[in-house]
Amino acid sequence: MGSAVMWFRRDLRLADNPALLDAVAAGDGRVLALFVLDSALWDKAGSPRQEQLAASLRSLSDSIGGNLVVRHGDPATVLPALAREIGAASVHIAADYGPYGGRRDSAVAEALDCPLVSTGSPYAVAPGRVLTRQGTSYQVFTPYYGAWRDHGWRQPVAAPTGVEWIGLKSEALPESTAEAGEEVARKRWQEYLGDIAAYDDERDRPDLDSTSRMSIPLKYGEIHPRTMLADLAAKRSAGATAYQRELAWREFCADLLARYPEAAWKPLRPEFERMAYDEPGDGFDAWCNGLTGYPIVDAGMRELAATGFMHNRVRMVVASFLVKDLQVHWKYGARWFMKQLRDGDLASNSLNWQWVAGCGADASPYFRIFNPTTQGLKFDPEAAYVRRWVPELRDLAGKAAHEPWKYDVPGYPARIVDHGAAREESLRRYAAIKGTAPDRDRS
């Protein structure tokens, strides 16, 4: 009888998984479901991502009768051995466009005695598919978004039926109590769709807790963006359109990283190689621990430490504070986020940090420097989010919690920098690499 290997990676689901359908067809219904815990990725992931991945893998295994085979090791060694053991005619994957993933898959393909078949990707529109008329990748999001929509995507496909999962001894997964898996993701998404109309108005409000948090299941492929886009197409609201745009931004980041792998840790705009940054020190430690004296920054960093998640608006504020108030290179913040986030995705993380730092494609202008106090007052108007995560400020009513330096607040740190002075220094450093007088933009 024929058989095939389905090598799961960022597609930990059964529904809307074209690579899995191909594996079932190629193996005459007999499929070995495999996940490789690759130390090159596992060891670099922080404990929140490890815990989330372990929970997602356990859920996937449960959905196929406990038949997910987990192996630790180098995929270029693990895959050929398992394929030979079961006499597989082919190994099936969804394409990985990350810098490491491409190299790894090439090494696996070379080591295998059978074909490595790639079908689909973690994106509705795979990186490299949306090009300008000159055949180059887009550097600005708005035209990319238009071309992305014009390109379109296929409709979701159903989960396979009648699969005979090949059972082999599996290595143990780390323990995890995280909520994860395809069923959880689809239920969360369906519930959120009922509130999607409010997304455009409320997505910047961390106090309302009204974002979908679907970045976590998207990271692990518990749901495919194509499934989400199909559901959004049935909605007619500004909120649904805004959400579609955010999914497109995720794919824009992936497209950029696939085209420029060095963008993981280096600026896309070469002039920023000359930017003067300070080495991480006490200020960086205070930022990591939520002890900067700026409530919205501290609330965000404490939410991250406690949950492995941070609201997107707050991510922008804390990133701006690190780069433009503390003058620390964005790569240190990006690496800290990758250690702490449950949804840590290299493309989205690095390219969003570059956006804030002003050094990426379609970047926010460097001189757009977030004032952490005004950002807090605007997007957390009664300081409910701040009081949720900074208990030292719970006795300050309303907006007062955004300006604790005006009151006697025992136990809460003083501001580690003066924002106005830090902003002027940041503009001075920017002018030095541009050779011009500083611009003025007081966001």
Describe the overall structure.
It is a single chain. This protein is mostly helical and 443 residues long. It contains 19 helices and 6 strands. Strands 1, 2, 3, 4, 5 and 6 form a 6-stranded parallel beta sheet that branches. Strand 4, helix 5 (99-111) and strand 5 form a beta-alpha-beta unit.
Features:
single chain; about 450 residues; mainly alpha; Rossmann fold; Serine Threonine Protein Phosphatase 5, Tetratricopeptide repeat; DNA Cyclobutane Dipyrimidine Photolyase, subunit A, domain 3; six-stranded parallel sheet; 19 helices; disordered C terminus
Distance between the termini: 65 Å
Counting structural domains, the number is 3
General shape:
globular
Radius of gyration: 23 Å
Care to count the β-strands? 6
Portion in beta strands = 5-15%
